[in-house]
Amino acid sequence: MTPSQLRFAPSAEGRIAYDDLAPTTASHERVFLCAPSLGDTRAEYRAIAPELAQRGRVLSMDLPGHGESDTTFTRYDADALADTMIATLDHAGVERAVLVGCSVSGGAAIVAAARAPERVEGLVLLAPFTRKARGEYALGLLMGALFGGPWAGSVWSSYYRSLYKRTRPEDLEAHIDSLRAMLRDPARRRALVATIRGSKGPVQARRASVKAPTEIVFGSKDPDFSSPADEARILCEAIGAHAQSALLDGLGHYPHVEAPSAVLARIDVLLARLDERSSPVARSAS
């Protein structure tokens, strides 16, 4: 397998770290931009990035203040995260990509697709947060208390484990150790809390503006949602006819880590739709 290259994309408030993994076949021109959930790093995509490289070039980014990205950012809402996605594409010289976003990054991918439709070929939304929660402000204060201090690594580790419901990957504890090490840095703890507190309102307002073909994937046992099935249905209806969803049985908040092959199968469904859309017959019909 071709090794990935670590790169840093400049943005308005700091640099975004991302891995650039070349496609395994030169004929594959499609590009995937993968953005992780909050409190995680680009290594969240360690299981599916090599598989995606069989389908195109893969860019896996760290969120602002997370992983190896700079801690100089002051904004962590969905609009700001969408800005960093576009900045990463710019630095990589990519005009158009399939955005793959998990959790909070799924919401940011929606914002990016609504604001810059010419840059987004398709969307893969993995357990995305897309609606403003009741009591969001109070929840943000609570999360700040839980994850703002030196105990954050231990608290986050316990919470993070609870998000895996059917299958825990063999390297889960090693990955958690890396997250715990990240959260020893007070600046990265502040970034985590700020990302948690970022309002989902901008995402909710832009869902209906998404025109890119969209694949939505939830785990049926995701504890971050009172009803993952309802969440998938509501989002699918909000985006419209070019969105479709899948509920993967028994999985938690990270379906692409628990069951990479199942998520890749859903991505392949999206890619088939994109290929059909770009075929000469489809173009002439439009």
Question: Helices and strands in order, then pairings?
Answer:
Elements: E1 5-10, E2 15-21, E3 31-35, H1 49-52, E4 57-61, H2 78-92, E5 97-102, H3 104-115, E6 120-126, H4 136-147, H5 152-162, H6 172-182, H7 186-197, H8 201-206, E7 214-219, H9 228-239, E8 243-248, H10 255-258, H11 260-278, H12 280-285
Parallel strand pairs: 3-4, 3-5, 5-6, 6-7, 7-8
Antiparallel strand pairs: 1-2, 2-4
- Which percent range describes the beta-strand content? 15-25%
CATH-assigned fold name: Rossmann fold
Question: Shape, please?
Answer: globular
Mean pLDDT: 92
End-to-end CA span: 39 Å
Class in CATH?
Alpha Beta
Short synopsis of the structure:
With 286 residues, the protein is of the alpha/beta class. Helices cover 43% and strands 17% of the residues. A hairpin with a 4-residue loop joins strand 1 (5-10) and strand 2.
